[in-house]
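FAQ: What does the model actually see?

It sees only this:
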Amino acid sequence: MEKRKIICIVLLALTYSACAQTEYDRKLKSLYRNSVKTIKPADLKELVTKGEKITILDTRAPEEFSVSHLKGAQFLNYDSYSTEDLKKLPKNEKIIVYCSVGYRSERVGEKLQKLGYQNVYNIYGGIFEWKNEGMPVVNRQNQLTDSVHTYNKNWSKWLTRGVKVY
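And it is asked to produce this:
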């Protein structure tokens, strides 16, 4: 009897997790224009592990970046960046953009493409999905952290792993 109870609990947990991911995917579909290619967090981690030459841009606000970001990411303030800031980026590298969920970073990716950048990718699901998949983030001291700035309470529901800060 106890074994059945455990199996039921595990199945319910897996079902809930799958439903939550499906809901998140629906949310992302409603936000994305699909104007910039996406890259899955696991695929980006593989590129980083292989040592491929890439530029990673965090396109969130300063307070979000200071809580946590991907290791090696350059900060590009979504609210105040200029075309000149974008023109300084190398044209011969893959450029990976991200924000909380991928909406703001997709807008930045669109501008990069208009400037002639061809290898631009938006992290699918942003830093939330990166962290949800168990990938590491660092704080402003470049130390590993579980904290992720979730923008506000409403958006925090999409972060399922890590410490929510808003």
